[in-house]
Known about the structure:
CATH class: Mainly Alpha
Strand content: 5-15%
Order of helices and strands: HHHHEE
CATH topology: 434 Repressor (Amino-terminal Domain)
Number of domains: 1
Oligomer: single chain
Number of strands: 2
CATH superfamily: lambda repressor-like DNA-binding domains
Strand order of the largest sheet: 1-2
Low-confidence stretches: none
Helix content: 40-55%
Amino acid sequence: MARAALHWSLDQAATAVGVSRRTILRLENSQRDIQISKVAAIRRGYEAAGLRFIDCGYDVGGVVPPSLRVPPPA
Length: 74
């Protein structure tokens, strides 16, 4: 879902975050044998591209694409 929200191909995501295509696929297929450091690298890469992960509340586990982000109130 996160990769799709960025409109990235598998190769684009792997290159942008610095992990293998296989690691991205394993994460997307909910395989549990992924190193925590690689999951963190993927998250950092997606966030650097402007994606925001929803970590709490009703929509936990969702993402907000960069085009839908609303700046915080001043």
